[in-house]
Structure formats: structure tokens, C-alpha cells
Amino acid sequence: MIKIAIDAMGGDFGPEPIIEGVVQALEEKSFLPVLVGDKEEILSLLPQYYINKVEIVEASDVIDMADQATNALKRKDSSIYKAVELVRNKEADAVVSAGHSGATMTLATLRIGRLPHISKPALATLMPSLGNNKTLVLDVGAVTDCTPQNLYEFGAMGEAYVEKTLDVKNPRVGLLSNGSEETKGNALTKEAFKLLKGLRGFVGNVEGKDIFNGNVDVVVCDGFTGNILLKTSEGVVTTVFALMKQYIRKSLPAKIGALMMRKKVFVNMKKEVDKDEYGGAPLLGINGCAIISHGASNAKAIKNAIFQAIRFTQTDVNKEIETLLTENA
């Protein structure tokens, strides 16, 4: 049975939504959660029926969001350190954390280690696009200063992840630039373009709009650009929904139309752009699986992050990443 180590104490709202998310996941899938944190507090939140369906690992320390990520290696009694160690020691197949993202990335990279052909891991996230598809964007924050080799490796990781976990045959990989022409871009993207040509799925430069129009399955960029892109997209979604509500309230015909569409159009649209539907972002390139969730994750987000971890483990993404990189070595 697949074992998922879960940092039960990380997150903005403490262990309650995390435990609830674990329970919801257990109701839908068969796996063994290993909850890491304050045993007494975990047991107080865990329904009696589920006590025998989980394992608990005691951890006396919690890395706060305000703490320095660089100190994570010294805090061996923290919940995230112990959760990562379970994967390092092959006592769990994956780790899920909604705690300090920097600490999680640092520990996962240094304690679990990188894949043989990966120089730096990348944080990947799914973005909504037309045609009921999703676009994987990486990196969105793990590596702010990238080399062309990093971007090439990101392309291989993205191609492997989409093909294995989303069942996309022959995924299309694009390099984010300020124009689709090969001559466009800065020094970094121009050099990365030459390397990415070696990937079988590479289709060339793409623009920001291509993330959402279904033209590609994977978009590669440095972590600085990707993080700004991610947060800007979240802001746009929030603003669009707020404007829709604002204008609907001002018009009676609009109110009637909104009422008629509420059950189908609005519900489906909200589901497409809801970050909780994805649960978290996989840290690709490590010799294991780590899913990093938002600090404000609710139970639904935690459940879906666990499902991501299970899917990753079942599909052997890391083997495919190594195959792609070895082909072009």
C-alpha cells in the first residue's frame, strides 16, 4: 500500500484542515497516511473510526512561516523535517506539506536528494486552459536565477510529468518568451532554446497567452518569472470574479441570467480556476515525491494534494525524467 507522509502541523490554520483533508482522502482512496506532528493534538482531531487507519510520528517542533528556510536542516524535531526523512529512508513514498514552502523545498532537495541528471529541482503548477486541458508551468519559485541547462531540465521534467500523470500523449513543450519567433527573448532564453531543441516535444517559444489557450501542455520559465506569473494569474482570477459580481448586482437582467447559469456555467468555471482543485505543486527533480501546498490550504486542497502524491507514485514519473535526459545526454 502507498504510504504518504503528511506534515500535520504545517499550514496557516494548524492541523485541523489537514486532518480533515486526510479523512476526506481516505474516504475516496486506499493508502496509508503517516501523520507527523503533535500526537496528542492529532488524536484529538482524528475521528475514532480512522485512528487505526493512520500512522502517527511524533514531532515536537513546527517551522513557522516567518522562520528562515536555511534553519530547517538544524531543526530535526520539526514536523516537516521528520516527514521528509520518512521519504529519504524509504519509509514513505511521498511527502505532502502545507507548511513553510522554502523549508520544504530545502529539506526535500538536500535530504531526499536530486535525480542523477538534475542540477536543480523545479516547482510546477497546473494552470487552466481552453479545451478542458491544463498547462503545466515550471518553475514557479524554486530557482529564481536559472541557467540555460536548468531550463532544459525543466522542459524534460515537465514533459515527463504531463505524459505520465495527465496521460497526455506527445506533450508539447514551449519556452516562455516575449514572442514566438526563435530570435525573440533574452540571453537566457536564447541559449535555453538551443538546448530545448533536443526534447522531442519542444515546439519553440511561446507567449504568456499560450499558457491559457491550449496551444501547449508545458511552459518553461525561470522561477522568478514563473512566480510573478502565478501570483498575477491568481490576482486576475480574483478580480474577474469580483467584477462579475459587481456588475451583476447593478442589473436585474444580469441577476436573472446569473441565477440561470449558477448551477452549470459559474460552478464549472470556478472549478477550473480553483487552486484547491490542484491541491499543491510537485517539486520535480528530487529522488522521490514532494507536494507543496499553499499555507492557506483547506481540507479539499489537502485531499487533492494527497491524490497528486498517490498519482505521482503510481506513474513512475522520475524514471521517465531520467529516460528523457539520458536520451539527450
From TrEMBL:
Protein name, entry field: Phosphate acyltransferase
PANTHER family the UniProt entry points to: FATTY ACID/PHOSPHOLIPID SYNTHESIS PROTEIN PLSX, PHOSPHATE ACYLTRANSFERASE
Function: Catalyzes the reversible formation of acyl-phosphate (acyl-PO(4)) from acyl-[acyl-carrier-protein] (acyl-ACP). This enzyme utilizes acyl-ACP as fatty acyl donor, but not acyl-CoA.
One Gene Ontology biological process: fatty acid biosynthetic process
Enzyme Commission identifier(s): 2.3.1.274
Subunit details: Homodimer. Probably interacts with PlsY.
Molecular function in Gene Ontology: phosphate:acyl-[acyl carrier protein] acyltransferase activity
Gene Ontology CC terms, in alphabetical order: cytoplasm
Gene from which the chain derives: plsX
Top EC class of this enzyme: transferase
Location(s) in or outside the cell: Cytoplasm
Domain of life: Bacteria
Protein family: Belongs to the PlsX family.
Sorted UniProt keywords: Acyltransferase, Cytoplasm, Lipid biosynthesis, Lipid metabolism, Phospholipid biosynthesis, Phospholipid metabolism, Transferase
Pathway: Lipid metabolism; phospholipid metabolism
Record's keyword annotation contains Cytoplasm: yes
HAMAP family in the record: PlsX
NCBIfam families referenced in this protein's UniProt entry, alphabetically: plsX
